[in-house]
Amino acid sequence: MIQTSSRIYHCGIIELDKHHHEKGNITVAENMDTIPFDVRRIYYLYDIPGGESRGGHAHKALSQLIVATSGSFNVTLDDGSVKRTFLLNRPYQGLLVVPGIWRELNDFSSGAVCLVLASHVYDEEDYIRDYEEFAIDKHAGKL
Ligand code: TYD
Is there an atom of ligand 1 within 6 Å of 55 CB? Predict the structure, then answer.
């Protein structure tokens, strides 16, 4: 049987294009160039209270690029077998999260802004919010 289930090693940091300038820096991300999917939606988390965590779910089809445009936070990814934590603290780095990966975001610094570039529009049906359901689907190779 061909293993189609996504794994942690399919995720990782993408270095975004950055332009240094004495008046300030610019970082650019373009569809299918720096980002390996077409962006259909962006959203951002901000004013996150100290000690709060976000995420706590997986997606069936959604790919995301997560960027700490300001401040820092941790993203822990879990493919049902392996967990890996990424510290995001550079506005020119994005964490690619492929479908079928459980994620938790925490340790937000004061003033942190978490920008998410997403491959699909919002669809609650695409979420798996129950870890047991995620683990069962993952081990069955459905996710
Ligand atoms: P959720 O994705 O669970 O947040 P996080 O992973 O950051 O903790 O979304 C939180 C709520 O926001 C959810 O109940 C629905 C709403 N929401 C939208 O309406 N549209 C969106 O694009 C997103 C991402 C969330």
Answer: yes
- Residues 77-101 have pLDDT tens digits of 999 999 999 999 999 999 999 999 9
pLDDT tens column, 99-130: 999 999 999 999 999 999 999 999 999 999 99
Which residue's structure tokens are 């798996």? Answer: 128
First-to-final CA distance of the chain? 15
Q: Does ligand 1 lie within 6 Å of residue 106's CB atom?
A: no
Atom of ligand 1 nearest to the CA of 41: 22
CATH label, 8-139, candidates 3.40.50.1820, 2.60.120.10, 3.20.10.10, 3.40.50.300 = 2.60.120.10
Q: What is the pTM of this model?
A: 0.96
Report the sign of the C-alpha dihedral through residues 130, 13, 118, 67, in that order.
positive
Residue 71 CB–ligand 1 contact under 6 Å = no
CB 33 within 8 A of CB 117: no
